[in-house]
Amino acid sequence: MARAGLTTERVTVAGAEVADEVGLDQVTMSRVARRLGVKDASLYTHVRSLEDLRGRIALLAADEKTVRIAEATAGRAGRDALIAFAGAWRDYAHEHPGRYAATQAPIRIDPDLVAKAPGPRRAIELTYTMLRGYGLAEPDLTDAVRLLRSAFHGFVSLEAAGSFAHRRSPQQSWVRALDALHTLLEHWPPPGEGDSR
Q1: pLDDT mean over 39-48
Q2: Does the UniProt entry include the keyword Transcription (predicted)?
């Protein structure tokens, strides 16, 4: 019998809190059970496995991050939208490192859960809407999405790892990088010779 008050949502949130504290790769069913004050076996009524829990953490984080980005970019366009979007992404990664890691990890997630979760789908819609403000259409939209995701994820990952040891602050570099991305998006290059490969 499941412990009273224990739900899939509570287990997922507890797992997300553990991930933020010790890292996603250190999340175990035992750690989550201890946090909730239950035996390990109690969790399996609510999540099937550790991979299932990590997938649920990823979907929770995707929803949370998307809400932040939506709130930050509401009513904005162009450079303002790009800066707000990137800032919300970076802030979430700093405040919730374990959850953020889950959104980037190659976790096998139950397709039924993905279909019910609004976060991933809304994240794509928000990104494409912002980029359409720059006049981009396919296939450039997909290329630009991949560029931004790579730039944002690369920057926050290196920053979190303490890899920016130069005396110039990461914030100054972040601002300049966003200026450069804005300029590139405004002057997106035409298709090149290798575009058809």
Answers
A1: 95
A2: yes
